[in-house]
Amino acid sequence: MTNFDRNKILDSVLDHIGGTPAVRVNNIPKSEGVVCEIVAKCEFFNAGGSVKDRIGKRMILEAEKAGIIKKGDTVIEPTSGNTGIGLALTAAVKGYKAVITLPEKMSQEKVDVLKGLGAEIIRTPTEAAWDSPESHIGVAKRLNAEIKNSWIPDQYANVNNPLAHYEGTAAEIWSQCDGKIDMFVATTGTGGTIAGIAKFLKEKNPNIIIVGVDPNGSILALPESLNPEGIHSYQVEGIGYDFIPKVLDRSNIDRWIKTDDKESFIMARRMIREEGLLCGGSCGAAMVGALKAAKSLKAGQRCVVLLADSIRNYMTKHLNDDWMAANGFSDEATRKVNEDKKL
Ligand code: PMP
Question: Name one GO molecular function term (predicted).
Answer without folding.
Answer: cystathionine beta-synthase activity
